Amino acid sequence: MDDSTHEQLVRDLLKQHVRLRAAFLKDPRYDMEAYRFVCEAVDFTCRRLDGCRDISGRQLLDGICDLAVERFGALAHTVFGHWGVTRTDDFGDIVFTLVEVGLLGKSERDSKADFHDVFPLDETLDERFRIDPDDLILAPHQETGL
Fold it and tell me: At 136, is the secondary structure helix, strand, or coil?
């Protein structure tokens, strides 16, 4: 990586950090990590949908849940709770705050209502985190000698 590419990368990261901070200051109900995670979830969701950049609220919520389960496992809803997120509506507030600070874009048909009470967040996370018993490696039973 040459110096100019490195400098541009540093500037871009700094700009993103400043905008994330602006989002947090605009609506501090949510931890700054929640704003960062939603940005990552947008990228994650777009990659899953073959790189499209226009995703619906429902598609993003599905991506958010899938990424959370992948990253945090059974603790996903605990992490979200720590960040102040308990409902799908909270993600709508985060998304539109990120739009206001210029980190995300939106189309005319996008609305906060797209995130309103879409599904029960905790139940959905729990349903998506399932352990397949066939994937478990169990130690062979050893006799106790009793």
Answer: coil
DSSP code of residue 73: G
d(CA 87, CA 115): 9
| Nearest-5° Cα angle at 132, 81 to 50 | 70
pLDDT, tens digit, 9 for 90 and up, residues 88-136 = 999 999 999 999 999 999 999 999 999 999 999 999 999 988 766 666 6
Smallest CA-to-CA distance from 59 within 69, 78, 44 is with 44
What was the pLDDT predicted at 7? 82
Domain boundaries, the chain: 32-128
103 and 112 in contact (C-beta within 8 Å)?
no
How much is the pTM?
0.84
CB neighbourhood size of 130 (10 A): 9
